[in-house]
Each structure stands twice: as C-alpha cells, then as structure tokens.
C-alpha cells in the first residue's frame, strides 16, 4: 500500500530497544513537528475549506500523539529530552520544489507530508511487530493505523488541489528519492534514524 522502495530492516528494533528513552523523546518531537507542518500548510492554503477542516483534525491527532508519548515517558520515569534534529526529514525538505507556481509548491508540500507519514507508518509497523515491550508494540500498532490515514489524506488532497502537477509522476519521484535516501538511515534509535 505504501509503495516505499526499501523496507526497514527489523534489526533496527534492536537498536531502538537499547535506548527506549531516546526513541520516545525523538518520537514525541516528531509528533510535534508533524502538527506544526500541518498548521503551516493550513496557514498558507486557508482558502481550501475541506483541507482546513480535515487537516485541523489531523493536527489535533498529532498533538494527542505527542501527549500520549509524553505520558508513556512520564509513566516510565523517563524524561522528555530536548528536541532532536530529524536529518531524514531535513533531507526530504531539500527535495521540495522551490520553483514553479504557488500551487506547485502547495502540492509538493502535501507530497512531502505524505512521504513522512508513509515512512513513519512503516517504521511503526516494524516496531509493533518486533519490539519485545508489549505495551509499546500495541501503542505502535495503533499509531501505524493513524499514520496510514494521514498519508492517504495528504495524497488525496495533492490530487484534489493540483492544477498542473502530474501528481502520480511527482509522487513516484518522491518514492524514488526516498528510496535512495533511506539507505543512509536505520542505524540509530530514532523514528527515522
């Protein structure tokens, strides 16, 4: 369904399990950044009523996920560390088209968002199926389902609001770029690391 070129090696979960506090902190900040990204999309495209309505719901979900991760951190006696840089997302951001029309940029931002959600969904699936901690396995299975819904929403809006962009062609370019990029990741205890 996701169409990603490269699946995460399940051995990545062993790295994650070596430092649960780090993955939880990184995950919490990923949720915060996802909400911020959505608010940015809404801010620049507020003329699209359906988009605003649906993305506001997703932004609330992302903040709820942030709170859920924070609650797990607190319940385990861990600390929410400082915000982490997400090098994977920063590399994806560089792939955004900088030229073209306002609509081209809007559609590409939606595809950028869909790509992050797709990889997060895939990583959560790997966690849910391979982590020994049953509480976290159930938690990540729940979030996997949520991320899949976010991914499809961003793709749906890219197709709906595109004026001249061949969305399927551009999405394939995103898939190909991410397939190369992800080969550099999967080596640290972060969601995209």
UniProtKB/TrEMBL annotation:
InterPro entries: Ferritin-like, Ferritin-like_SF, tRNA-Hydrxlase_MiaE. It comes from the Bacteria. Pfam families: MiaE. GO terms for molecular function: tRNA 2-(methylsulfanyl)-N(6)-isopentenyladenosine(37) hydroxylase activity. One of its GO terms (biological process) is tRNA modification. PANTHER family: TRNA 2-(METHYLSULFANYL)-N(6)-ISOPENTENYLADENOSINE(37) HYDROXYLASE, TRNA-(MS[2]IO[6]A)-HYDROXYLASE. This is tRNA-(Ms[2]io[6]A)-hydroxylase. It comes from Flavobacterium franklandianum. The lineage of its organism: Bacteria, Pseudomonadati, Bacteroidota, Flavobacteriia, Flavobacteriales.
């Amino acid at each position: 369904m996701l169409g990603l070129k490269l699946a995460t090696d399940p051995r990545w979960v062993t790295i994650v399990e070596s430092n649960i506090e780090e993955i939880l902190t990184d995950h919490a900040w990923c949720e915060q950044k996802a909400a911020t990204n959505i608010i940015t999309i809404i801010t620049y495209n507020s003329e699209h009523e359906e988009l605003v309505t649906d993305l506001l719901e997703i932004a609330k979900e992302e903040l709820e996920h942030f709170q859920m991760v924070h609650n797990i951190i607190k319940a385990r006696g861990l600390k929410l560390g400082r915000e982490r840089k997400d090098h994977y997302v920063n590399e994806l951001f560089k792939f955004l088209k900088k030229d073209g029309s306002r609509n081209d940029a809007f559609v590409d931002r939606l595809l950028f968002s869909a790509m992050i959600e797709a990889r997060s969904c895939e990583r959560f699936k790997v966690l849910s199926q391979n982590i020994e901690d049953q509480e976290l396995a159930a938690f990540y299975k729940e979030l996997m389902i949520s991320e899949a819904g976010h991914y499809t929403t961003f793709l749906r809006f890219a197709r709906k609001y595109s004026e001249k962009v061949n969305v399927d062609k551009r999405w394939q370019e995103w898939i190909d770029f991410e397939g190369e990029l992800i080969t550099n990741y999967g080596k640290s205890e972060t969601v995209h690391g």
